[in-house]
Design goal:
The complex is a heterodimer of chains A (407) and B (106). Chain A has 407 residues and is of the alpha/beta class. Helices cover 23% and strands 29% of the residues of chain A. Chain A contains ten helices and 27 strands. Chain A is globular. The N and C termini of chain A lie far apart (57 Å). The model of chain A has no long low-confidence stretch (mean pLDDT 97). Chain B is an alpha+beta fold and 106 residues long. Chain B is built from three helices and five strands. A five-stranded mixed beta sheet of chain B has the order 2-1-5-3-4. The longest helix of chain B has 7 residues. The radius of gyration of chain B is 12 Å and the shape is globular. Classes of the chains: A alpha/beta (407), B alpha+beta (106). The interface between A and B is medium-sized, with 30 and 21 residues. The structure holds flavin-adenine dinucleotide and FE2/S2 (inorganic) cluster. The site of FE2/S2 (inorganic) cluster (FES) has 13 residues of chain B, from loops.
């Protein structure tokens, strides 16, 4: 049996960082990355943004150049799937039957799109957006498409809508909740994005549940039917209703899983030779005292660095403050922290303009800040939250007040 | 290919040949030079790619403006020669460019 040193399962943001960080931390044994993707790790964020809008080319997507992996003896096995993990004998089995031995194992299995389960879900013209192939397939289908419906008004759906509008397509977004981004932002931010998209010619429909994709005899989608009987013509549908973590492999191997593979602040599972990082892992969050699975590139990178240190016998706890961004049209949204559990918001700036920030508090404590074209507020918010600084809420709305005073 | 010199906070210098059209940030990542994190992958959202540009090259790289300038106003220890390295696209004239990296990107 081939001995593969550290085996990394998955080949995206977390895996790429983990492999590189292992070498930086001094890992001497082989590193083998087993990835079901057909290319080396690439950036996902541009897929719904610049890449879809044709402002970023495919060669710009690679996270690291092929030569770097070669020089550092990081061996990629592309288009291979790990089908089983045997933690007792420290082996993994590939779908092609091959068995590989590991000394350490890293789960970087990430997440996959949540599929919609309604009549017509398998019709021709229904698309999802997670992998590069998804976008390439979508781009081919766009030629000649007249009416695009996007199901789901979350970040992926909205970024996709913005990119497609910039290419001149007609776009309708259907969201089941009463407002866009309901799960993740305050009403002021939802309202802003609704206005932004409408001003750019997107039709936004909220509080409507999609019931069926109506198809022609040829099996191609023609209409989206909602539960209230309303219909929207569509020759192309993009579904963006969230993701599910890839946990099955870890579960079958007997590792504890909740919303994600359960790890501690060192990215360790209960098995001393197995770590997990990225979208698949649930971990204790500093600053918030919660167990949480995050879906973001900065989290995947930070956790991968932590995991690599752990595998090399060092201990660097996860310390990063969660943050996120989204680019739509000319608007840059940057989010510092996590707002879950907030009971109050304060708005800094004028929410009817393109420049303001929303500050989320639980009682006196600042939890998170959503910044719309306010990069300076974002930078300061990150520092204020991570340093747990006291904030006088009444001063926030005074734009002449310099936030740096609190640092 | 233009040669870019990256100097860490302790004064260690790393050199990399960076293709024209790549950014100074990519030059560091592609060559495993530590000190530039680039959490947002280069879309001017994170400011974890902050560098100080050697004064001699400032006329070539130009100053920061817009979003980049605002972000830089709130990084640790901003200076007149601060730039976000993902916003500096390498040109032939930048051969020999020396950038210093801050102690920490946070
Ligand atoms: C369109 C889009 C836009 C986004 N925009 C942003 C953004 O602006 N900012 C941000 O922070 N985040 C963004 N994200 C989220 C970000 O891309 C994810 O958080 C990140 O990709 C997580 O990386 P990961 O390596 O943990 O997992 P993933 O990227 O999910 O990668 C895991 C990989 O492992 C593979 N795999 C799983 N099981 C196996 C197996 N058994 N064998 C082999 N391979 C396996 C999976 O198929 C997958 O390719 C975006 C995501 C998408 C799809
Ligand atoms: S890489 Fe994020 S701002 Fe430069």
């Amino acid at each position: 049996m081939t001995h593969c040193g550290c085996i990394i399962i998955g080949g995206s943001h977390a895996a790429a960082q983990l492999a590189v960080s292992l070498r930086q931390e001094g890992w001497q044994e082989p590193i083998t990355v087993i990835s079901d993707a057909s290319s080396l790790p690439y950036q996902r964020p541009p897929l719904s943004k610049g890449f879809l809008a044709q402002k970023v080319t495919a060669d710009k997507l690679l996270i690291r150049p092929p030569a770097l992996y070669e020089t550092n003896q990081i061996d990629f096995r592309l288009q291979q799937v790990v089908s089983a993990v045997d933690p007792v004998n420290k082996q993994v089995t590939l779908a092609n039957g091959e068995c590989l031995a590991y000394s350490k194992l890293a789960f970087c299995t990430g997440a996959r799109v949540r599929r919609i389960e309604i009549c017509g879900a398998d019709a021709k013209g229904i698309h999802y957006l997670r992998d590069l192939q998804d976008v390439v397939g979508l781009q081919q289908a766009l030629t000649g498409s007249q009416q695009i419906v996007i199901v789901g008004g979350g970040y992926i759906g909205l970024e996709t809508a913005a990119s497609l509008r910039q290419l001149g397509h007609s776009v309708t977004v259907i969201e089941a909740a009463p407002r866009l981004l309901q799960r993740v932002t305050a009403p002021a931010v939802s309202e802003y994005f609704q206005r932004l998209h409408e001003a750019n010619g997107v039709t936004i429909v909220t509080q409507k549940q999609v019931a069926e994709f109506v198809t022609a005899e040829s099996g191609v989608v023609t209409q989206v039917l909602c539960t209230d009987g309303s219909t929207y013509p569509a020759d192309l549908v993009i579904v963006g209703i969230g993701v599910r973590p890839n946990l099955e492999l870890a579960q079958a191997a007997g590792l504890e899983c909740a919303d994600g593979i359960v790890v501690d602040e060192y990215a360790r599972t209960a098995d001393p030779d197995i770590v997990a990082a990225g979208d698949c892992a649930q971990h204790p969050l500093p600053y918030y005292d919660q167990l949480k699975r995050l879906e973001s590139v900065p989290n995947a990178m930070e956790q991968a660095k932590v995991a690599a240190a752990t595998l090399c016998g060092k201990s660097k706890p996860y310390q990063a403050l969660p943050w996120f961004w989204s680019d739509q049209y000319q608007t840059k949204l940057q989010i510092a922290g996590l707002n879950s559990g907030y009971d109050k918001t304060v708005i800094r700036g004028d929410q009817t303009t393109h420049n303001f920030s929303v500050w989320y508090f639980h009682e006196q404590r600042l939890l998170a800040v959503d910044c719309i074209n306010q990069p300076k507020d974002f930078m300061l918010a990150k520092a204020l939250i991570s340093q747990n600084k006291a904030i006088d809420q009444s001063q926030l709305s005074d734009l002449d007040f310099d936030l740096k005073t609190w640092l | 290919m233009p040669l870019i010199k990256y100097v860490d906070h302790s004064g260690n210098e790393f050199e990399a040949d960076v293709a024209v059209g790549k950014t100074v940030m990519e030059g560091a990542l592609d060559n495993m030079i530590d000190g530039i994190l680039a959490e947002c992958g280069g879309c001017c959202s994170c400011a974890t790619c902050h560098v100080y540009v050697d004064d001699a090259y400032l006329p070539i790289t130009g100053p920061a403006d817009g979003m980049e300038k605002e972000m830089l106003s709130a990084v640790n220890d901003p200076k007149a020669n601060s730039r976000l390295s993902c916003q500096i696209v390498v040109t032939e004239e930048m051969d020999g460019l020396r950038v210093e990296m801050p102690e920490s990107q946070y």
